[in-house]
Design brief:
The chain has 645 residues and is an alpha+beta fold. 57% of the residues lie in helices and 7% in strands. A hairpin with a 2-residue loop joins strand 6 and strand 7. The chain is elongated and about 85 Å long. The termini are far apart.
Length: 645
């Protein structure tokens, strides 16, 4: 047996030994998916306290956690009322600029207090992967009444390229699927046994799902509509009646009340009178010709949130064959796809069963849900193959229902990443794979030992497929802050300009050390209205409000694209930025220059230095910036600091 095979086999055996004790089912399942999670995070090896799992946007999200902690501490320790502080705790993380960070309060912050800065994040990733699997198991038990079927269901959710991809690029909040699973669990329980307890839990987890991530709350809503529609047309578990309808309405009201604080900022920024237009565009989506136009880079630079997000539509829409593309890193492992599709024809094969959970009528909401959410993951237009090229005809591309929902469903207009709907698709696929597994066991009358072998082989083959497609091993990152920023922290309050502009989350992340304001930093619009004076007010003061055009700002922007001739600026505009707004330093990053010009990063960096020296003289400080590769060896980049005043 391989290194990967042995722990999975051992975990399955441990489940069998523990399954008959009081806490056996939970302990055994938790142990199994803990080991599965450790296998998926195995590339950390002994570096759990020094390296982070993931890369990509990781630094930006770590900065958001820091920012939210400062905001919450200041809200509770300032002179503001406790009611306002409680309101900030509920809604502050919901602002589009920071995202739903409810998981900061209930997961990240407590774990950080227990385990420290780096270790807590890695433990959080492991805990998320484990809980996704455990909750998937109990959902399978709820619907299928079969341990083996429930394990198959849980494996589909736990061994998921979607969750792994989100963790790999630092967006762990999208990998937190278990609240959505628990909502579906109690929705099923409420349908089978309408009562106050199931109603309360359904409403509670509906609200918590939206609190963790608004778009999973939206997925829960769509699935609820499908589920209710199934209840109207299918008698598999009894049709909809007055009792079910009453408790369902109460659960929906409870979910909406609990959700409102976490979505209120998406509706309106209270106190400012600034509505978010992204709630509902009310206009047609771009045609495929416009979306793929050669002039798209020019279009992307327009001051329009929809147009600025076109790149996300293109990269986060999946090709239609992805469920059966073994070498595609964001696919569904082919074993899971095969089991999910096989469940439907097997459902028509008769055999004596203790219940009807695997019959066509009972599988209808899951099959419909899988198809619906699969279509949404494809994005606005159908793409084809590994290259992700659009399927185009003379009359245009093949549009999907995504375009209609984007135009007419409130809040869906902010879903620039269609792949997010994979979470609900995985849950539906899991139930179908579990139903297929149970049906196979029923038809072939597998003994208990062979059931264990089947589940172990399913896990091993699926983990192997993740290695084949490149979803595993997950990347790891070692993040170091340059020494200069610790010196900058000792300076009096000022604002700094990081150049080149917008070249990575790391520049925002460095604010954790220096705590100075950043020119055009992300925190500008992230503070709730009425926030008390203090540190946060310093970070969020909008220095260019009412004066959008500024030649000095244009000069610094031009250093990104034409450093050899960035143009001139007026003394008035220079004074407005530097003197009136206290932008005292500009930090030039060679690392950022390589992101703009991979072939000529060093030359680009030198041209920026030359342009800055003409106006501000020689740099006042030099420093080094280190980026670590997978071999644990740092790559060194130069930094230069100019004093602007």
């Amino acid at each position: 047996m391989s290194v990967t095979t042995l722990p999975v086999w051992g975990a399955v055996c441990a489940v069998n030994r523990l399954i008959n004790s009081r806490w056996g089912p939970f302990c055994g399942v938790f142990l199994l998916f803990l080991i599965v999670g450790l296998i998926q995070l195995r590339d950390l090896n002994g570096m759990w306290s020094t390296w982070f799992v993931g890369s990509g946007e990781l630094e930006g999200w770590l900065w958001r956690f820091w920012w939210m902690k400062k905001m919450l501490v200041e809200a509770w320790t300032s002179s503001a009322s406790w009611k306002y502080a409680l309101w900030v705790s509920a809604v502050a993380g919901c602002y589009p600029e920071t995202g739903n960070l409810f998981d900061l309060e209930v997961m990240s912050w407590p774990l950080e207090l227990l385990f420290g800065y780096v270790l807590h994040y890695n433990i959080k990733c492991l805990l998320v992967l484990t809980l996704n699997g455990v909750c998937g198991y109990y959902l399978g038990r709820q619907w299928l009444n079969s341990r083996a079927g429930a394990l198959a269901c849980a494996l589909v959710i736990a061994i998921s390229p979607y969750s792994l991809y989100e963790i790999s690029i630092g967006r762990i909040r999208q990998a937190i699927i278990f609240p959505l699973i628990l909502y579906v669990f109690y929705l099923c329980a409420l349908w089978r046994r309408p009562c106050f307890a199931n109603m309360a839990w359904t409403g509670f987890w509906g609200a918590i799902t939206s609190a963790f991530y608004l778009y999973y709350g939206m997925a829960a809503f769509f699935f609820t509509v499908i589920f209710i529609g199934w209840g109207v047309v299918s008698p598999a578990y009894g049709r909809i009646n007055v009792r079910r309808l009453l408790f369902g309405i109460l659960a929906g009201v409870l979910a909406l009340i609990g959700t409102f604080p976490f979505v209120s900022s998406y509706v309106e920024r209270s106190g400012r009178g600034q509505h978010l237009p992204e709630m509902m565009w009310g206009r047609d989506f771009l045609t495929l010709e416009e979306l793929t136009s050669p002039n798209i880079e020019t279009v992307l630079k327009q001051n329009d949130p929809l147009l600025n997000s076109l790149q996300r539509f293109r990269t986060d829409s999946l090709p239609w064959q992805y469920a059966f593309m073994p070498h595609y890193s964001r696919c569904l492992p082919w074993m899971f796809s095969a089991l999910a599709l096989l469940a439907w024809p097997l459902a028509f094969v008769k055999r004596e069963q203790s219940d009807n959970s695997c019959r066509p009528g009972a599988l209808l909401p899951w099959a419909a849900g899988m198809v619906f959410f699969y279509v949404l993951t494809l994005g606005p237009y159908i793409k084809d193959g590994f290259t992700g090229s659009y399927v185009a005809y003379d009359s245009g591309g093949i549009a999907s229902p995504y375009i209609i929902l984007f135009k007419y469903v409130p809040a869906f207009a902010r879903l620039f990443s269609p792949v997010r709907m994979s979470a609900m698709m995985l849950i539906c696929a899991g139930i179908l794979a579990g139903a297929c597994t149970r049906k196979i066991f029923d038809l072939l009358r597998f003994p208990a030992f062979l059931k264990g072998v089947y589940v172990a082989l399913l896990a091993i083959i699926s983990l192997h497929s993740l290695n084949v497609c490149g979803a595993l091993p997950l990347p790891t990152s070692r993040i170091e802050i340059p020494d200069y920023y610790y010196q900058l922290a000792k300076e009096k309050r000022c604002c700094i300009a990081e150049i080149p502009f917008r070249t990575g989350d790391s520049l925002q992340y460095y604010q954790i050390a220096h705590e100075q304001k950043l020119l055009l930093g992300w925190s500008d619009g992230a503070t709730p209205p009425g926030f008390p004076p203090g540190d946060i007010e310093f970070y969020t003061k909008r220095i260019f409000e009412g004066k959008p055009q500024n030649t000095f700002l244009d000069f610094m922007e031009a250093l990104n694209v034409k450093p050899e001739d960035p143009g001139l600026f007026t003394e008035e505009d220079y004074n407005y930025v530097v003197r009136d707004s206290a932008v005292h330093y500009a930090v030039i990053h060679e690392r950022g220059c390589y992101q703009i010009s991979p072939e000529n990063g060093s030359s680009h960096y030198q041209k920026i230095l030359d342009a800055m020296e003409k106006h501000f003289g020689a740099p006042v400080a030099y420093s080094k910036e280190y980026v670590y590769g997978r071999d644990n060896q740092p790559q060194e980049f130069n930094m230069a600091v100019f004093q602007l005043i």
